[in-house]
Amino acid sequence: MAEFRIPVPAGADLMQPYPVKVPQFEGPLDLLLHLIRKNEVDLRNIPVADICRQYHEYLVLMQELDLEVAAEFLYVEALLVHVKSQMVLPRAVLPDGTPQEDPRDELVRRLIEYRKYKGVAETLHEMEALRLGLWSRPPARLEASEAEAEETDLSEVSLFDLLTFFKGALDRYRSAHPPSLEIAHQKYSIKEKMEDMLARVRSGGGPVPLSDVFRGLAGRAEAIAVFLAVLELLRLRVVRARQEAEFSDILLESTGEDVTLEGYEESYR
Amino acid sequence: MSGELENPGSPPSPGPSAPPAHVALVEALLFASGKPASVERLVEASELTAAEVEAALEVLERALEADARGVRLDRVAGGARLVSRNEFDVPVRKLLGLEGKNKLSMASLETLSIIAYRQPVTAPEIAELRGVNSASSLRTLLDKKLITTAGRKEVVGTPFLYKTTKEFLVHFGLDDVKDLPKPEDLDALYGVETNTSQTELFPGEPEEKEKEEDPSDG
Amino acid sequence: MSGELENPGSPPSPGPSAPPAHVALVEALLFASGKPASVERLVEASELTAAEVEAALEVLERALEADARGVRLDRVAGGARLVSRNEFDVPVRKLLGLEGKNKLSMASLETLSIIAYRQPVTAPEIAELRGVNSASSLRTLLDKKLITTAGRKEVVGTPFLYKTTKEFLVHFGLDDVKDLPKPEDLDALYGVETNTSQTELFPGEPEEKEKEEDPSDG
Fold first, then answer.
1. Who's near C108: CB < 8 A, 6+ residues apart?
2. ipTM above 0.85?
3. Is the peptide bond before B120 cis (omega within 30 degrees of 0)?
4. Given an 8 Å threshold on Cβ–Cβ distance, is B202 in contact with A99?
5. Each residue of A217-237: pLDDT tens digit?
6. Do C199 and B136 touch (CB under 8 A)?
7. Shortest CB distance from B34 goes to which of A27, A109, A136?
8. DSSP string computed for C141-182
């Protein structure tokens, strides 16, 4: 349990420093154990009402100090309130004559179990402290060429390590091969799309609706190439766009200009 | 003890003995390995018998302790390794340009304790036992290679299972996870205080409840 | 020579002398260093004087020679290091070879991860993704039975397809490669945690530091 001091607020009477020490807890069970110990009550016979009130006071204190109260603390508070309410009810006797379980039992079981692991954690903490100053030696290498190769024991590799390695390779690949327009551009030539489009509007089948132009394309990259091709044809005045009514489909048709795209240089590189 | 008084200059050695050549060989092996080497490994590499290796290890261990030496034998993770002595932590770090090793937080230690005793165990099970989400502790422990994954549990959500590693044993100086205090000892150590003073409000309560370990039935 | 005869049990030392604490300190430093350390660096780390370090080195050198030990002091340009004795080369190599059996390089692990997630996959595809030829990693993984071939791909050159093995699944405790973690799983573990009370009191230093070679001495 770590303790920290709340800094004296600005404007406070410095002659009367008022350091507040708030113990910090690893979780709601840790806080409960602390309260039980502080009250010197038996874990098997927790005065739920008292503990519930003190637990609540602690959460209020945390909020007053602007410390975030984790959801788990609130959950256990609700549990305490529930147990408290159960305690005032007379307990039924089961058909076989045994009394119904004490409403505190589940909580007590959890506290006992938690306390064991907390105890082990404290033991491990002491064991660790004795060993932090020990240094082993980097293993010798069989071959000089291996000097740089860092090796890992397979038993130490977790599934998450595998995923991280895979992601690392992917990320490296992606930064070496930026996707998007550049690839689209190389894959779909705007000039080709312009030629296709020109052939279509000159085929004599009447105006081509813009919405038809985007049908059946392989993906975004091709759509971008087609769109750029349409804009380019409009700019060159080979194709004209018109709209018969507001929000109706835009129609593309040939201007009749006899323009060939021979020697046309794509400028969207 | 000791039938070896042929060297009058040396203090009487009460411990086991081994030919100096065996001790030197085992020292060379441990020195080169860096990691804890098991007796089986040392036997395989040295072509000595297991008993000879054991004897050499013991002689080496005592020799390193007796003289004011810079290294000592560390028996850990089912094997032995050489480590620099604790007291030289600061100069060693200065030479290597390393910061001090950080202690694990209590949150991580609690999480690790649960994994050590209940392995393989899932994150939801750990959260249930601790009463708090333990993802950041799991991350720390995975990063430090003190735990690793052990597949998935076949329950709803197929959560990942976690277990401790050899590095866990090395970190805490354990020979085996079995060397942790047993659950029964834990009950005695950290469990319920005997309820002698307790007024039996609910006399029908079975006493065994106190020792119960399974929280999942709650 | 030797003004130190206060210990009547020890043989008279004909060489230079140094306080045992200095010798132990220098031994610890050379041990942990792994590579040659210059006298200047030893001075800096130990806060002894250059003369004291020199004396300690000499005493250590003699002590290692006199006692038929497994390691010896190797004086190299401007410094010294500890090395295992040449006569133990064969067993030392044998041990390192045995220990290397369970080890994988970062390159091999990356290759393994690509095969695990993209299987079946060809060597050219792996090379394309990694940006380097991965033939030696593939050989290592095949040797360790973590991957195997899965026929040939019907493209130019009909390259072999690779997939992970049953041993791979057993090692990672999985029933099926479909159970490999997905990016969401990693996010759940490494994402922002809701529970602020859980923040690590001692933010983690990667444990690998322990084994890390001196980075400042590249």
1. C137, C140, C141
2. no
3. yes
4. yes
5. 877 778 888 888 888 888 888
6. yes
7. A136
8. HHHTTSEEEEEE-SSTT-PEEEEE-HHHHHHHT-SSGGGS--
